[in-house]
TSPO protein (Rynchops niger), 167 residues
Amino acid sequence: QGRMWAYTVGFTVLPHVGGFLGWFMNRKEIPVWYEKLKKPSWCPSRKIFPVAWTVLYTGMGYASYLIWNDLGGCSGKAVVPLGLYGAQLALNWAWPPFFFGARNLKLALIDILCLDGLAIGTMCSWYRINKVAALLLVPYLGWLAMATCLTIRIWKDNPEQKPGKSE
């Protein structure tokens, strides 16, 4: 029982690691660069993002534990459902360095579009295994839909500068 508690916490905390590192590495770009971008009127306040991601990462992390547990750990049956989850998590973590770090809006857009597909694939593969785990991804998919629309609008409304031009 004690070991299962550790797995529950580990899986639940894991998504937060990349989220925190992404924020930490790019935190200086937010007031300097991001605030100057043209954004749509429906763009959420900066204060909402850490709260939203804390809730979303917790839900998806716990859901991944449920899948792992239902499939008996890292068994052959877990390769596709947890592989999809791991791939979408990697793209999730890659978005902030592309967007804020490299300031590459096109690469960030490609990343989030691929992320959308993998997150949907993850939810579909999980639904057959554990409906609660799949449903825990619904808020995440909703937020991703908004984030994708926001990324598209920012990409369209802020033409990237050519290399060598100063800001």
Notes: Residues 163-167 have pLDDT under 50 and may be disordered.
